Amino acid sequence: MMTSLSTKYYQVFLAHGLTVGLGCAFLFIPSIAVVATYFSTKRALATGITAAGGSIGAVIYPIMFHKLIDDVGFGWTTRTIAFVALAGLCFSFAVMKLRLPPPKHSRPMFDLSAFNEAPFLIFSFALFFAFIGLYFPFFYLPGFFTSYLHSDGSISFYSIAILNAASVFGRITPGLLADRIGSLNTMIPMSSIAAVMGFVWIGIRNEAGAIIFAIIYGYASGALVSLPPTVLARLTPDMSILGTRMGMCFVFAGMGLLIGNPIAGALLDLERGVFWKAQLFSAMMVIAGTALFLVLRILKWKQGERWKI
Q1: Does residue 220 lie within any of the structural domains?
Q2: What single DSSP character describes residue 103?
Q3: What does DSSP assign to residue 40?
């Protein structure tokens, strides 16, 4: 709502960049943590459905903005989006309920014992590297259509909707597989597919190939967003501190997302349509994350963990 009233850069930065960013962080981690505590056998599917809301919103909101901006202006376009978000949040707040009772004594914001556990640290750094490169297509795929493929504005705009629509299915359906073979066992091939598609992107020269890339990459990347909470649940000995450990782990992922896109953006040359440097950087970072996922899998196997992780 405050973004709709903004007329200066610092106002947009405070309202949309800072406040909305903090609000999304406060919403995502607790909502995933609450849902995870209700499930043991179908946890991956449940958290996948929960996380899919983010991709659905990423499809709906840009289209709303694109369709309304010329008719009602920036202010009421932004307010309309805010009202839709408010309606969805009111429903969530009305039905969500903690399964576990609140702790009798306040807990610290950080569980320092987690830093003594090699699996937690490996997984956190794996997410850090993976998220450095994972979201580059989500930010720059439209620019690839316009600057490199010289496509019209319509297809470039809807490429993001295609990418996020595929991510909806990628956040839900891998959960079905993860509940059978394990979340980490599912993340490794999905992360590998995303990395391979990152390299494939370098060789794409037409719109059809770029759209196919968006579908496959969007699907594979969705699993890397929805499945980490269920892996953390397996790595956490006490479910009452699951939310704390999720927050700690996603700080690593958030830092990767924070620095990854600016670095990739600095490697771009939009005027000349040079994308391969940023594409290579993005793919290599996802590869690094995948390698650490595999290291974690081997470590848990050596520690005597069952094959289903």
Answers
A1: yes
A2: P
A3: S
pLDDT tens sequence across 235-292: 887 777 777 888 889 899 999 999 999 999 999 888 888 899 999 999 999 999 999 9
Tell whether 308 is covered by a domain.
no
- For residue 230, give the nearest of 176, 153, 286 by alpha carbon: 176
Assess contact for 268 and 275: CB atoms under 8 A: yes
Strand partners for 274: 269
Q: Which two tokens stand for residue 106?
A: 């306040």
- CA-to-CA distance for 10 and 7, rounded, in angstroms? 9
Whose CA is closest to 195, among 114, 68, 262, 284? 284
Tokens of 105: 């004594």
Q: How many CA atoms lie within 13 A of 2 on its CB side?
A: 13
- Residues 208, 167, 134, 254: is their CA dihedral positive or negative? positive
Across the strands, what pairs with 269? 274
Number of domains the chain is built from = 1
What's the half-sphere exposure (Cβ side, CA atoms, 13 Å) at 180?
4
Domain with 10, as residue range(s), is 3-100+110-302
DSSP state of 269: B
